[in-house]
Task: inverse folding
């Protein structure tokens, strides 16, 4: 007997992935497949693609996380590669279906640097990204990085939504996140203005700020009080950290040192995006360690261990707020475009 054909509305939209060097874009991509497969809420999700290369990349990255229990290293997949996946959703309550296509431009986080802060010796080479080969193009065409950067600007301009990964641990160590954010945002604004697409004096994009590594005690231990952590332990299973915690934590980072990079990034976000199009998320690509009793332990939740000088994932990765920002962006974009 033939299976029923579901009416699955398709909404074409682009969501770009943005982040500084080492911000974890590669790990985030690998966690997307795991997050979709582990979804157990009101809707279930499947991530696939008509592009065999995109399917292969996502499968490989997910395998490194889930089976090898390691963090993906830089993957050379070619110059200026676009990877496109379709997200297929089904609502369990009313059996409605939805499909939307998301496109990522495969770039190195190094391309987000200010040109005048680039290390001339190349010592800031990106080793945790889906990267480009560092070679020169033909005479008169500039380097491949320059070509890639031009394509990246155009890609972000044409995106409907942007996922921005902010790594608070690396920001505390290096304090250079703004240099990756500043110039690229200025170029996106300039190009959008040239195209006549600014809404008033701001970008039309929807933005999801994902504050990463919330599984790290250096982040969660500062973002939440001991009482907050105790509340998480009262419920069985893996905890979920609400958006208000992410917003509060990011504000705290800005207030600690008014002249730090996080403050400059927040100022740029608030001056270039509309407030009702911005969301903050407490994100972890690997999730918390949950012990044999199935409960979150405020004294033992770190899911990363060091073995022979190499970081490994301690237990089964259970991504937190990895898929949710994408789905949230898609829903906001649909509503803004008049879809229901």
Result:
């Amino acid at each position: 007997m033939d299976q029923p054909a579901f009416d699955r509305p398709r909404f074409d939209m682009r969501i770009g992935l943005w982040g500084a060097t080492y911000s974890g874009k590669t790990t985030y991509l690998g966690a997307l497949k795991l997050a979709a497969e582990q979804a157990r809420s009101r809707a279930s999700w499947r991530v696939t693609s008509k592009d065999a290369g995109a399917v292969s990349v996502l499968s490989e990255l997910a395998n490194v996380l889930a089976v090898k229990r390691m963090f993906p290293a830089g993957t050379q997949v070619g110059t200026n590669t676009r990877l496109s996946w379709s997200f297929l959703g089904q609502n369990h309550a009313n059996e409605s279906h939805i499909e939307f296509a998301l496109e990522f431009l495969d770039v190195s986080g190094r391309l987000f640097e200010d040109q005048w802060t680039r290390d001339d010796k190349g010592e800031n080479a990106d080793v945790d990204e889906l990267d480009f080969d560092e070679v020169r193009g033909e005479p008169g065409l500039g380097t491949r990085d320059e070509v890639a950067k031009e394509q990246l600007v155009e890609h972000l301009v044409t995106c409907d939504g942007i996922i921005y990964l902010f790594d608070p641990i690396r920001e505390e160590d290096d304090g250079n996140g703004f240099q990756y954010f500043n110039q690229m945002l200025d170029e996106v604004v300039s190009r959008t203005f040239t195209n006549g697409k600014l809404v008033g004096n701001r970008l039309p994009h929807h933005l999801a700020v994902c504050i990463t590594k919330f599984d790290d005690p250096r982040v969660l231990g500062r973002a939440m009080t001991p009482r907050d952590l105790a509340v998480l332990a009262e419920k069985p299973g893996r905890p979920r950290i609400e958006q208000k915690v992410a917003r509060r934590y990011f504000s705290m980072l800005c207030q600690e040192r008014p002249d730090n990079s996080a403050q400059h990034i927040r100022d740029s976000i608030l001056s270039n995006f509309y407030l009702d199009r911005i969301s903050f998320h407490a994100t972890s690509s690997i999730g918390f360690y949950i012990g044999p009793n199935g409960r979150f332990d405020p004294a033992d939740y770190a899911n990363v261990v060091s073995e022979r000088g190499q970081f490994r994932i301690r237990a089964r990765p259970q991504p937190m707020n990895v898929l949710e920002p994408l789905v949230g962006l898609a829903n906001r974009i649909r509503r803004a475009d008049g879809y229901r």
The first strand starts at residue 10 and ends at 12. The chain has one domain: 10-336. The first helix runs from residue 25 to 38.
